UniProtKB/TrEMBL annotation:
<dbReference type="GO" id="GO:0016020">
    <property type="term" value="C:membrane"/>
</dbReference>
<feature type="domain" description="Neutral/alkaline non-lysosomal ceramidase C-terminal">
    <location>
        <begin position="533"/>
        <end position="693"/>
    </location>
</feature>
<dbReference type="InterPro" id="IPR006823">
    <property type="entry name" value="Ceramidase_alk"/>
</dbReference>
<feature type="binding site">
    <location>
        <position position="221"/>
    </location>
    <ligand>
        <name>Zn(2+)</name>
    </ligand>
</feature>
<keyword id="KW-0378">Hydrolase</keyword>
<keyword id="KW-0443">Lipid metabolism</keyword>
<dbReference type="InterPro" id="IPR038445">
    <property type="entry name" value="NCDase_C_sf"/>
</dbReference>
<dbReference type="GO" id="GO:0046872">
    <property type="term" value="F:metal ion binding"/>
</dbReference>
<dbReference type="Pfam" id="PF17048">
    <property type="entry name" value="Ceramidse_alk_C"/>
</dbReference>
<dbReference type="InterPro" id="IPR031331">
    <property type="entry name" value="NEUT/ALK_ceramidase_C"/>
</dbReference>
<keyword id="KW-0732">Signal</keyword>
<dbReference type="GO" id="GO:0046514">
    <property type="term" value="P:ceramide catabolic process"/>
</dbReference>
<feature type="domain" description="Neutral/alkaline non-lysosomal ceramidase N-terminal">
    <location>
        <begin position="22"/>
        <end position="530"/>
    </location>
</feature>
<protein>
    <recommendedName>
        <fullName>Neutral ceramidase</fullName>
        <ecNumber>3.5.1.23</ecNumber>
    </recommendedName>
</protein>
<dbReference type="GO" id="GO:0046512">
    <property type="term" value="P:sphingosine biosynthetic process"/>
</dbReference>
<feature type="binding site">
    <location>
        <position position="502"/>
    </location>
    <ligand>
        <name>Zn(2+)</name>
    </ligand>
</feature>
<feature type="signal peptide">
    <location>
        <begin position="1"/>
        <end position="20"/>
    </location>
</feature>
Amino acid sequence: MARALILASVLLTLFAVAVADYNVGVGIADVTGPPTEITFMGYAQMRQRGRGLHLRQFSRAFIVDDGKARFVFVSVDCGMIGNGLRSEVVEALRARYGDLYTERNVMISGTHTHSGPGGFLQDILFDLSTLGFVKDTFEALVGGIALSIHRAHQSMQKGRVFVVSGELRDVSKNRSPTAYMNNPESERRKYKDNVDKTMVQMRFVTTDNNPLGAINWYAVHATSMNNTNTLVSSDNLGYAAIVMEKRMNGRAHPGKGAFVAAFASSNEGDVTPNTQTPRCQLSGRPCDVHTSACPTRRDQCVASGPGRDMFDSTRIIGMRLADKAWELWGSTSAVEMKGPVGFAHQFVDMPTQRATYYDEKTRSTKTVRGCLPAMGYSFAAGTTDGPGSFSFRQGTTSDNPLWNAIRDLLAEPTPDDIECHGAKPILLQTGSMTFPFEWQPRIVSTQLGQVGELVMACVPGEFTTMSGRRMRIAVRDALVALGAPESTQVVIAGLCNTYSDYITTPEEYEVQRYEGASTIFGPHTLTLYLAQYRRLAEYMARGEHNDPGPQPPELMNDVLSLQTPVVYDSPKWGHKFGDVLLQPPEVVRAGDLVTATFVAGNPRNDVRHGMTYLTVERLENNRWVIEATDAYWETKFKWERTSTILGTSEATVLWEVGPNTPPGTYRIRHFGNYKYIFGGVFEYIGVTQNFTVATASPSPYSYGSGRRVRALT
Ligand SMILES: *[C@@H]1O[C@H](CO)[C@@H](O)[C@H](O)[C@H]1NC(C)=O
Ligand SMILES: *[C@@H]1O[C@H](CO)[C@@H](O)[C@H](O)[C@H]1NC(C)=O
């Protein structure tokens, strides 16, 4: 009792301290991975290998310091974050800053784009489709994330932080509504929708109210680009960031402006951006709601929309997200953060966790436990955003002797594993698969960060809508009980620090949709997390160093890579690298798609961070000014090996002439690197002939209006 009183008074002082100003910093850096020949991370489709680039991937970092504590939030245009990736970033920071940035105060969240090159996680299951670990992807991410934090560090100045939120409809839908419906009715009645429609914006300004940056959290999958896309893209959230930054930064090219806007992931586990009704691709009929199956086995159930193709859908969703964030930026109802900066971090070994659970149905309390990681049958069915390759169905709760036999060759689940996973028929007992090393993580990072009354709950995977809601309530209630103000607000930072697949509620788990089948620590994964984050809330409120928990295994020395490197490049007979094989037309107009093709090397030879594979240039006072780089929506960069034996290849630059393009003399340049047959990588530059952009015909288009003259595919 006495301890509680002392604790309460300590907390009261802690929460009551009003901070006049924070020190804040924002930074952005390029993290684009090798854009060719590497399988994308997300849909697990071997054939979805990079053949160029549409939008560059960026890391966006935000630092807040109240004079006592410093906290870093980073949002990265990549599939997710893994233990190894984050620890390498922290190591890179340690080399430069000592103990200023550690695993305790650095929080890194992935946007979950499914169109970035893979191979950057270390656990085997996540690297199967990329033929193992891909060092180039990993290093591009580590270097870029660390650089974004470094830039944020260097830009630190006195500043103010505000939080505001608003509702955004028409960009998301629940892709497993039958699982959601299994949550208690009394709980569902508290919410209008079966997905969260609130955007939460944290904005950073100087003490004179000049804009510095914003983090916008919104729960939606970055899967507007589907599993047939082969151009690297940051998808809907990444495009929203580019649009908002462009509006604020004026002529600065993407990734180069001072204002940094992140669109970060949240509890998007069961949330799709593909807003049209899922349909069977061959027959065009709606699919079965519970299993997402089609009447014929070869047919696949896919959702798309709202645009006419995936690029159009990405643009529409991205633009709506950007427009909402823009509106929130202008809102006068934003609340200024005044409280302290705080954080708490702990690694936990999930299979050994225990918690008490109150079962609404039986009205009884029981002790529940974590299981060794395992994936269920419905995992192999995939989702309506990207169906799987075999004819598995979602909602599968019974098993099949043939698949079980194959499974047992890899690792046979024990009776205890089967009992532990409950409703989930086990397809892959990954927790027992140790050859040649770990298949899925069992030690995950858990973390809370706080800036004033806004608390970020960094979760090691994809929380479904209702899981996220329960987590927000649990953390907020725990903090308020410890003396935090009633105005305390919690956001879920998704795919954060560790990737351990999905987290559903125990009720959703029973239904075994894809998300439930991918909830790897068993039916009470969420129950265990709720208990864990309540403990974290206490650690954070006390502001003490807590037990760091068990370190995840170091896998860097074990990783395997079967990905062949670039062997060599050679130009086409009679040509040199950079030669133009197809010139743009002499005169083009707004709405035209300009194409130029060059003799090229493999873009994988150099990811050209902070630079570009192409420029569209306009002649101004006898000087060439860059109108667009490869990071613009209006440009696409495509690459093709024309002969593997000869090592020849071609790069094509596509540029859609926007209606606001100033008329004048233009040229396109391509920058590349080739690998010489006798060793070494060398740069080359190609340049087209000059061409004219003629005066635009009148058009309703503007960068922000979201209307487009012609499709670009
Ligand atoms: C992906 O989108 C394209 C349109 O951009 C469409 O033709 C294709 O059927 C879609 N594929 C899947 C698997 O969703
Ligand atoms: C393109 O225009 C520039 C500037 O006027 C000129 O220097 C250059 O020679 C032109 N290039 C070609 C191929 O005509």
